[in-house]
């Protein structure tokens, strides 16, 4: 039943996304701008890690795409709440987990698609990385967007007005981006900043993708990255489903 | 007649920053099969909160209730299968076509793809939406939107239909059509209809029995005639006067001073 319902909800929202293809491309714009206008600045700098500057920057941009994109997913649930769509679905016997999963799987699909566009552009700019590493990177994007979108929907159901939601998301996303070393690796950081960044889960993900991009598939970074990504997804989806079950309080 | 909805001391307290708010203090209620029940009360009396509890959207903090024999707390899935709900705001996406909404809704009720398409066509015929199936719901008129909202709620042929202020914002013609529709549902399918409204003429014309809530509890109940006789003084009393007498709210004072504009 959960599978059947998830497929239904997923289909509904995927069709909605396909109707606004422009918005789908637009989401990839910010990381694309970083790639074009920030990426070339790094090519000659010592970044303290193995691999070219592109192998270090592109994993960060992939997560930036997820971080800024998926965290805003909750905006749509605020709109749907006002239209009564969420409650209309919640009075049907449809599985509560499916109401969340269908939506976040759609988001994961959208962001992986945007990630593919970004990597294609990066290849043109000069990125060279093993195919397996690139695919692993997409896997991390999928897990991260699944998690962040779940949390975002949960917040959207709780907050209920876009005026509160926007600032809240910005307050989460900016420090997360800076503290996880998405733009420049934390290996360049002074000790205190490096230590601090270990409290931000995305730090582990970006380190893991950077390892994948240079072909290190069995490193400790990779192990920690996978553990954090899977754990974060489990916690986020559980939180999100709970909110769909009890919302309205 | 068998009771389709029965509530005993149903209550909901919201925890807010300013302290607990008792939105519904303890509602006792019985609705019989095939009855059209008008649920009235001033703004903030707890009508929508009661409705949201009876439709499983909100967990009660006290008391208990059953809908079509299913307990709200222990068998919410059973309640959902037996009832349909039309919220004040409706519940369709303006960017999606009428057909897609109807089919998806039927699929949510676990109909197969083919059955869902057939049911969508049937509902469209029943509610005069056939010519509008491929239109986006955002392009419908108020009356058409309402008919779609109701069609969505009738997808699974529920025993009980909950309508929250169904005619708010409709023109007189659409209101009359909606009243006919509600009566037809009851007469042809035996559907029990539980509706809230602020229009007393609507309650008078449509409801077999009224329940008036005030301050989160039932203040009076009975047929429109009985309530008029008891609280309004005679059968000729208006439901307006009866309502004001029950809720203890005097009619707005007629003020000689000109209204500021």
From TrEMBL, chain A:
Query: What are the protein's UniProt keywords?
Result: Antibiotic resistance, Cell membrane, Membrane, Transmembrane, Transmembrane helix, Transport
| Location of this chain's protein in the cell | Cell membrane; Membrane
Identify the Pfam families for this entry.
Answer: ABC2_membrane
Any idea which GO molecular function terms this record carries? ABC-type transporter activity
Family, per entry: Belongs to the ABC-2 integral membrane protein family.
Biological process terms from the Gene Ontology for this record are: response to antibiotic
Q: Which organism is it from?
A: Streptomyces griseofuscus
User: Would you tell me the Gene Ontology cellular component terms?
Assistant: ATP-binding cassette (ABC) transporter complex
Q: Which InterPro entries does the annotation name? A: ABC2_TM, ABC2_TM_bact-type, ABC_2_transport, Nod_factor_ABC_transporter
Q: Which PANTHER family match?
A: NODULATION PROTEIN J (PTHR43229)
Annotated ABC transmembrane type-2 domain ranges read 22-247
Q: Which domain of life is it from?
A: Bacteria
Q: How does it sit in the membrane?
A: Multi-pass membrane protein
In its keyword annotation, does this UniProt entry include Cell wall biogenesis/degradation? no
Q: Where are the transmembrane segments?
A: 22-42, 54-79, 100-125, 131-156, 168-193, 222-244
Put simply, this protein is called Transport permease protein
UniProtKB/TrEMBL annotation, chain B:
Which SMART domains does the entry mention?
AAA
- Provide this UniProt record's keywords sorted from A to Z: ATP-binding, Nucleotide-binding
Q: Which InterPro entries match?
A: AAA+_ATPase, ABC_transporter-like_ATP-bd, ABC_transporter-like_CS, P-loop_NTPase
Q: Which residues form the ABC transporter domain?
A: 5-240
Q: Which domain of life is it from?
A: Bacteria
Mind telling me what this protein is named?
ABC transporter ATP-binding protein
Question: What SUPFAM superfamilies does the database record attribute to this sequence?
Answer: P-loop containing nucleoside triphosphate hydrolases
GO MF term (any one): ATP hydrolysis activity
Q: Indicate whether Isomerase appears among the record's keywords.
A: no
């Amino acid at each position: 039943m959960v599978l059947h319902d998830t497929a239904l909800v997923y289909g509904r929202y995927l069709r909605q996304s396909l109707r606004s293809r422009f918005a789908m491309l637009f989401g990839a714009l910010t990381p694309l701008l970083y790639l074009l206008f920030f990426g070339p600045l790094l090519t000659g700098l010592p970044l303290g890690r193995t691999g070219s500057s592109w192998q270090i920057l592109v994993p960060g941009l992939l997560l930036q795409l997820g971080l800024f994109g998926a965290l805003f997913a909750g905006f749509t649930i605020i709109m749907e709440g006002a239209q009564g769509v969420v409650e209309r679905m919640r009075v049907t016997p449809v599985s509560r987990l499916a109401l969340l999963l269908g939506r976040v799987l759609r988001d994961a699909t959208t962001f992986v698609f945007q990630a593919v566009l970004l990597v294609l552009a990066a290849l043109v700019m000069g990125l060279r990385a093993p195919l397996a590493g690139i695919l692993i990177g997409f896997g991390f994007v999928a897990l991260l967007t699944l998690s962040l979108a779940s949390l975002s929907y949960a917040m959207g159901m709780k907050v209920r007005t876009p005026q509160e939601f926007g600032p809240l998301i910005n307050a989460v996303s900016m420090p997360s981006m800076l503290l996880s070393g998405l733009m420049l690796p934390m290996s360049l950081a002074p000790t205190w900043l490096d230590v601090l960044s270990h409290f931000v889960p995305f730090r582990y993900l970006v380190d893991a993708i950077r390892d994948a991009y240079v072909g290190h598939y069995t490193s400790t970074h990779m192990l920690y990255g996978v553990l954090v990504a899977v754990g974060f997804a489990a916690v986020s989806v559980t939180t999100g489903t709970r909110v769909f079950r009890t919302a309205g309080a | 007649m068998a009771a389709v909805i029965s509530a005993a001391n149903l209550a909901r307290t919201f925890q807010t920053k300013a302290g607990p708010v008792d939105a519904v203090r303890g509602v006792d209620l019985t609705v019989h099969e095939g009855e059209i029940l008008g649920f009235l009360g001033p703004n903030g009396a707890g009508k929508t909160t009661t409705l949201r509890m009876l439709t499983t959207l909100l967990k009660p903090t006290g008391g208990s209730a059953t809908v079509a024999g299913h307990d709200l707390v222990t068998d919410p899935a059973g309640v959902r299968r037996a009832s349909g709900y039309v919220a004040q705001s409706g519940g369709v996406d303006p960017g999606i076509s009428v057909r897609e909404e109807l089919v998806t809704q039927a699929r949510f009720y676990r109909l197969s793809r083919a059955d869902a398409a057939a049911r969508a066509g049937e509902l469209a015929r029943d509610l005069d939406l056939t010519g509008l199936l491929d239109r986006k719901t955002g392009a419908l008129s108020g009356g058409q939107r309402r008919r779609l909202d109701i069609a969505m709620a009738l997808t699974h042929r529920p025993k009980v239909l909950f309508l929250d202020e169904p005619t708010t914002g409709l023109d007189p013609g659409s209101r009359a059509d909606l009243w006919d529709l509600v009566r037809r549902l009851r007469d042809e399918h035996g559907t029990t209809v539980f509706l809230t409204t602020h229009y007393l003429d609507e309650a008078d014309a449509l409801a077999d029995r009224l329940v008036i809530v005030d301050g989160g509890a039932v203040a009076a109940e009975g047929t429109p005639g009985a309530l008029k006789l008891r609280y309004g003084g005679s059968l000729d009393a208006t439901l307006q006067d009866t309502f004001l007498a029950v809720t203890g709210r005097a009619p707005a004072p007629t003020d000689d001073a000109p209204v500021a504009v």
